[in-house]
Amino acid sequence: MQQTEEKMLQKKLSELKPGEKATIVKVQGSRALRRRLLDMGVIRGTEIEMVRKSPLGDPLEFLVKGYNLSLRKTECENVYVEVKP
Fold first, then answer.
1. Which of 7, 23, 25, 38 is most exposed by smallest CB count within 10 Å?
2. What is the domain class of 9-83 according to CATH?
3. Three-state helix/strand/coil letters over the chain
4. Where are the domains of the chain?
5. What are the distances in angstroms from CA 56 to CA 20, 21, 52, 72, 76?
């Protein structure tokens, strides 16, 4: 009997493509930045979806907990997510 493990791909939130869904794994950065992101609902275990990128690539828009959230690319660099292939 052979079990197949579902391999998860881990990457930065800023690397998601529009329409791609992921689960938040880790939030890093300064204490103030982490607190700000946590207050906005960017919490480990939460599902997040990239909605769109602005024409110049900054800011990025996400759907998290039923609302749209716009974050700067530098803020997204501190959030790690797992994406199912």
1. 7
2. mainly beta
3. CCCCCCCCEEEEHHHCCCCCEEEEEEECCCHHHHHHHHHCCCCCCCEEEEEEECCCCCCEEEEECCEEEEECHHHHCCEEEEECC
4. 9-83
5. 19, 22, 11, 12, 15
